[in-house]
Amino acid sequence: MVVRDSHGQLVSVTESTNGYYVPHDVTDEAFDRNFGKKEIVTVDDIKYEKVQYIVKDRHYRVPMKLMFFIPAVIEVSYGSETVTVEAFIFQAFVPLVYLEEDDVVDTQWTIFRKLN
Question: How many folded domains does the chain comprise?
Answer without folding.
Answer: 1
